Amino acid sequence: MPEDPSRIALVLGAHGGVGGETALALARHGWTIRALVRDPSKAPRRADWSYVVGDAMNRDTVVAAAGGAGLIVHAVNPPGYRGWNRLVLPMIDNTIAAAETNGARILLPGTIYNYGRDAYPLLSEESPQRPATRKGEIRVRLEARLEAAAARGVRALVLRAGDYFGRSARNNWFSQALVKPGQKLKAVTYPGAPGVGHAWAYLPDVAETFARLAEREADLPVFARFHFDGQWDADGTAMTSAIRRVAGAPDVPIRAFPWGLLRLIAPFNETVRELIEMRPLWRQAARLDNRRLVAFLGAEPRTPLEQAIRETLTGLDVPLSVTARGTRGVAAIRAVP
After folding, report:
1. Residues 158-213 pLDDT 10s
2. If you ran DSSP here, which 8-state letter would residue 44 be given?
3. Rounded to an integer, what distance in angstroms lies between the CA atom of residue 227 and that of residue 234?
4. What sequence ranges are listed for the domain NAD(P)-binding (predicted)?
5. Which end of the chain is more exposed for a tag (fewer CB within 10 A), N or C?
6. Per residue in 194-212, is it b (16+ CB within 10 Å) or e — as a string?
7. CA–CA dist 155, 163 (Å, integer)
8. DSSP assignment, residue 316?
9. Under DSSP, is residue 222 helix (H, G, I), strand (E, B) or coil?
10. Under a CB-based contact definition with an 8 Å cutoff, are residues 181 and 170 in contact?
11. 5-164+202-230: which CATH topology?
12. CA nearest 253: which of 321, 320, 189?
């Protein structure tokens, strides 16, 4: 049987954390997944996905790959925070061109980088966007291009969330600061200031939210924005304490992140410079207001925190104690009103 164009999803970044989980969620909801990859040999291929070899920086490739697709998941970012000023906007322009040519809706994972301190502590979709970082400025421009394209009829959906963590994601604060992938938990390193809340987003929950929103296409405006609340840590201790419990290591120390050391390295390392720029997000609480999302979907998908951490640590090859392994269960995404 020929593929139903309205149920084909082209995923850019399908081998990354956000793109991979979103592809899995869409597939569970009956979408046919087509993945654009630069090098298929670098990640395991799935028999139920089709693959197109190409680069998101090549407009003709993206436009051709989107042929017949009803969705384009734009989950591609420069690795290690490198090259944002050179790569992010050209890539979204290519995706916009592909969506405009093929009549597809763009799904974009958003962040809280768009906002500055004047919008804290509770961020709505209409909060003023005056970011204090270069990455935030680029994010504002990226979304502005989608909104401008919507005036021409290009459909887009932005789902903003906090810091990602998940079983298949290694380019985030959880896996690069809090724990060390592939190593026994000897300490938890936390970047935040004591007592300051922080927004976390478990990737399978974000992906499930995308899939449920995509199922409501007939009810979506041409340009839609939603905020995902996720796992809100009110004082910075919920996440670290849960990691210790799940790993079966309740007494491992919780250490402060070495921001001072990073400043010494920053002149020689672009990734470190970008990390330092994100420090304000760890010194002041910024929570995403999900009331619009809940009103639209009825509830926000949410996996219990300890189950989400267990799946994440297992995916990152962080060994769990015998006791902790014995408590492992089946992941259950719950709908939280």
Report:
1. 999 999 999 877 778 899 889 999 999 999 999 999 899 999 999 999 999 999 99
2. P
3. 18
4. 13-108
5. N
6. eebbbbbbbbbbbbbbbbb
7. 26
8. T
9. coil
10. yes
11. Rossmann fold (3.40.50)
12. 189
